[in-house]
Amino acid sequence: MTQDPVEPQQPTFDGPPLSLEEELAAARAEPEPGPSIETVNESLKDGLNRCPKCGSTDVRLRGSTGMLVCLFCRNEWQEARVEEEFGLGEGIDQLEGTVIASGAEDIAADAADQVTFKCEACGAEVVVDTAHALNARCHWCRHTLNVNQQIPNGAVPDAVLPFRLTKEEAVEKIRAFASKRRLFAHKRFKREFVPENVLGVYLPYLVIDARAETQYWGKGEVQTRRWTEKQGDKQVTYYAADVYQVQRQVAFTVDDLTVEASSERADFGTKNTNNIINTILPFDTKNAVKWNASYLVGFTSEKRDLNVEALTPVLEDQGLSIGRSQVRGSLGRFDRGVRWEQEKIEIGGSRWVSMYLPVWLYSYRQESNGLLHYIAVNARTGETMGSIPVSQPKLLLAAFTVGTFLEGIAGAILVASA
Amino acid sequence: MTIEIIQALVHVASGVVRAASDDDGGGVLWLLAIGPAGGAATYWAIYRYYRNTDKSHEFERDTIIEAQPVQGGEDRVDHISRTRDSGIKGDNGGDYRKRVQRVR
Ligand SMILES: [Zn+2]
Ligand SMILES: [Zn+2]
């Protein structure tokens, strides 16, 4: 099987060939900026964010309903779902190029994180550090000032999915998760574990609709014969098989593929536990609403620092995986398996929306190795996943005990059969 | 947690039976390897249950995907007349995330 991989069989017809001039012009051309979706919430004035009924700015999210509630007059309301507002679920199979919603535009690296507001109520100047929060209270008149404009530093996303699970519910989930894993937990973790220390965090994601076509080339084997031969006093099984060059292709659309837009979270290396937060996906992103910073009051948030360009390879990678899972069902006749050797993806069109998604987060830093462990709860679905520091001595003792027990059985079998 | 240990033990025990029924010299060695193998399996089963290092979001399954019919073909290019391998080498048909050579 050292034979060279067969040249991929390209699709035979790909439109009329371009002339040399056309090809050169195409190569030189700047990438066309795709059409954009304007998601700025015009109804919100700079900074102040008032109850539509009484004009108070004391507005909070009521977790149980996902609605905004005015703490002054108890009026409850909700921003429009972005799904309908910007037609996000529609026309994925017609997408062309890269469509970027205004909140998903490139982060300006040089723009300062500090944004100064003039409080419209009393005239004081209030600074909001957009790297960590998108709202602040005026220390003179207690009005809440919100970053509602899509300022050029890319801090404000297009949409936000409000918290639904209450803190109490999240604490219960986290407690249940950890208590199932007490026996081998690190002693210090058990002592210091306080699930009430959970924090509500909005984490930044890019939510992608895309149209793609994938193609795969490889080898597949079909068994033609199976027999046994006697060698000395033991039976050896042999196989004969036909080898096929296999090609598959599939076109698909994907709706609301969700990828981490913070470089810290997007790194799934073995040196960290970021995979935990990824595991609590998916979210019901269809219910995300138009940006209104009042949804963030009482929660912390993390700023997006990855742009569409940086995440395009992630989209291609996940698209290739999706295509592979789609063609899997067509490989049934290759009962000895299939080995893919080459693959190709073409993204016909994609649409990117920047979104804040709600997570209840319990974190614990393991002192011995500096590893940050999380227990994360999806604040919409309640899905919970975590990483608990294990006590190596206890784990080794358990492994040794089971090993010794099995070795005892093995010894007994040997003695019995001798 | 106990479930994971039991799974690991069942896995190892089936190995014991298979090794014991294989009635040649290799069988004894296999049998003696059961202890260390079972210990290692226990270690990894518990470790995974606590740390979940192997978990991630299954976007291939948990995202709304609408696919058109799969197309393609296959050509017989070779025949293996005699091998002891029960499957193709490097089988990755079900390993969706393992990237192979990218054609551009
Ligand atoms: Zn009000
Ligand atoms: Zn003020």
Automatic annotation (TrEMBL), chain A:
<protein>
    <submittedName>
        <fullName>TFIIB-type zinc ribbon-containing protein</fullName>
    </submittedName>
</protein>
<feature type="region of interest" description="Disordered">
    <location>
        <begin position="1"/>
        <end position="41"/>
    </location>
</feature>
<keyword id="KW-1133">Transmembrane helix</keyword>
<feature type="transmembrane region" description="Helical">
    <location>
        <begin position="395"/>
        <end position="416"/>
    </location>
</feature>
<keyword id="KW-0472">Membrane</keyword>
<keyword id="KW-0812">Transmembrane</keyword>
TrEMBL record, chain B:
<keyword id="KW-0472">Membrane</keyword>
<feature type="region of interest" description="Disordered">
    <location>
        <begin position="67"/>
        <end position="104"/>
    </location>
</feature>
<keyword id="KW-0812">Transmembrane</keyword>
<keyword id="KW-1133">Transmembrane helix</keyword>
<protein>
    <recommendedName>
        <fullName>Cardiolipin synthase N-terminal domain-containing protein</fullName>
    </recommendedName>
</protein>
<feature type="transmembrane region" description="Helical">
    <location>
        <begin position="29"/>
        <end position="47"/>
    </location>
</feature>
<feature type="compositionally biased region" description="Basic and acidic residues">
    <location>
        <begin position="73"/>
        <end position="98"/>
    </location>
</feature>
